[in-house]
């Protein structure tokens, strides 16, 4: 527990224009990995624009590790097909959490993360003060595939007894 900083809730919202891996569509799901942790969304049948709206929670001990996003097509009788991957770092998000927030109005942008060669952002990602919490919205462009994006939202959860930020 001495290295535990807190929890990162990842709201896996939806996929946009994902690749077709079956005859006419795909049965996509998302795997989130960080270090030895691995979490998975539900499978959405026959949809290249799935709405998962799943919340997955990672325990953060080493914030320098990347968060990997892997998209797969569920297959019944063979190995699941890869539909692309992406990764992002949470360092900027955690830095924004450390900023003073007293008196900040709801909806204020605390920080911006531009797309770069070091991240898979499809567009600028804003960290916003919302209902007393910092929230980061992001659209990730999938790599190693012909097309597709995944929309996520990050939120930090402080846990009593953790080391904290």
Oligomer: single chain
Spans of at least 5 consecutive residues whose pLDDT stays below 50 are none
Please, how many helices? Answer: 1
Compute the separation of the termini in Å: 14 Å
Helix-strand makeup class: mainly beta
- Count all strands and give the number: 10
Global geometry: globular
Strand content: over 45%
**Strand numbers in spatial order across the main sheet:** 4-1-10-9-8-7
- Assign a percent range to the helix content: under 10%
Gyration radius, in Å: 17 Å
User: How confident is the prediction overall: mean pLDDT?
Assistant: 91
**From N to C, what is the helix and strand string?**
EEEEEEHEEEE
Biggest sheet descriptor: 6 strands, antiparallel
Secondary structure layout plus pairing:
Blueprint: E1 6-16, E2 28-34, E3 37-40, E4 51-60, E5 67-73, E6 81-88, H1 91-98, E7 109-113, E8 125-130, E9 133-141, E10 149-157
Antiparallel strand pairs: 1-4, 1-10, 2-3, 2-5, 5-6, 7-8, 8-9, 9-10
């Amino acid at each position: 527990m001495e290295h535990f900083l807190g929890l990162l809730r990842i709201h896996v919202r939806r996929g946009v224009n994902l690749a077709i891996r079956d005859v006419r569509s795909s049965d996509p799901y998302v795997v989130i990995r960080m270090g030895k942790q691995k979490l998975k969304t539900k499978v959405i049948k026959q949809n290249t624009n799935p709405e998962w709206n799943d919340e997955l929670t990672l325990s953060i001990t080493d914030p320098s590790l990347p968060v990997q996003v892997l998209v797969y097509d569920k297959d019944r009788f063979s190995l699941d097909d890869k539909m692309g991957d992406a990764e992002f770092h949470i360092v900027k998000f955690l830095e924004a959490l450390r900023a003073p927030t007293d008196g900040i109005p709801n909806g204020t942008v605390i920080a911006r993360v531009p797309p770069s060669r070091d991240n898979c952002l499809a567009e600028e990602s804003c960290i916003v003060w919302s209902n007393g919490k910092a929230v980061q919205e992001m659209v990730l462009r999938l790599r190693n595939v012909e097309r597709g994006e995944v929309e996520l939202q990050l939120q930090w959860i402080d846990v009593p007894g953790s080391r904290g930020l």
